[in-house]
Amino acid sequence: MAEQEQARGQGERWVEERFDGEDWALDEISRRHYERCQFVEVDLTEAVLTGCTFEQCEFANVKFNAATLVRCALLGCTIRRCSFFDTAIEDCKLAGTQFIECELRSIRISGGDWAYANLRGENLAGIKLAGLKLREADLTEADLSGCDLKRADLSYARLHNTTLRGADLRGADLTGVRLRGVDLTEVRIDLAQAGLFAAAHGARVEP
User: What is the pLDDT tens value at each position of the chain, 207 positions in all?
Assistant: First the structure.
């Protein structure tokens, strides 16, 4: 078992491989590079992934429950029907990655770059996203109610029909965001943002 774990943790590279039904629970995996690989029903429960890179990979029904991802990069990946119960994602890059019907509500995110990520329709209610880079992310019809979005980079993100009830947007970068029609019920915003929202709804903001 120890030899297996060691083999999985030492900077190897995999291209166009398929991993189906494998049990990687509790494994420590570091500095591995996966390109155009498929992960189907892989169990990563309580695994620790450090410095790994996944390029254009597909994940289907993968269990990330209680796993920890540190400084990993998931670039242009598709993540479908995967479970992230109590998963910790720390300082990771998920540029252009698409989430489809995933369980994300108890995910814990600390820093990182999720620019261009596709989170359409995903339930992110109550998640702490403070300081996260979500530039040009697609959050159409996503549920962000009660989210901590303080100082998040939401510039040019798509918020069409996004639920923001009770979210904290103070200090978030809303440059280029179409604010007209965004429901601000119980949303916390700062004075600068209040001017942006007022202007978006046709008000004349004057000193």
Answer: 334 444 444 568 999 999 999 999 999 999 999 999 999 999 999 999 999 999 999 999 999 999 999 999 999 999 999 999 999 999 999 999 999 999 998 999 999 999 999 999 999 999 999 999 999 999 999 999 999 999 999 999 999 999 999 999 999 999 999 887 677 789 999 988 887 777 766 656 566
Q: Is the pTM of this model over 0.85?
A: yes
Q: Which structure tokens are listed for 20?
A: 């189906």
Q: State the sign of the Cα–Cα–Cα–Cα dihedral 135, 71, 31, 7.
A: negative
Which structure tokens are listed for 31?
Answer: 């500095």
3-state secondary structure 108-167: EEECCECCCCECCCCECCCCECCCCECCCCECCCCECCCCECCCCECCCCECCCCECCCC
How many other CB atoms are found less than 10 A from the CB of residue 206?
5
- Rounded Cα distance, 173 and 16, in Å: 38
Extract the tokens encoding 62: 């993968």
Question: How far, in Å, are 32, 102, 127 from residue 155 at the CA level?
Answer: 32, 24, 19
136 in Cβ contact with 116 (< 8 Å): yes
Neighbours of 7 (CB within 10 A): 9
Tell the residue number behind the tokens 């620790």, with chain if given: 48
Residue 32 neighbours by CB distance under 10 Å: 19
**Structure tokens, 95:** 């540029």
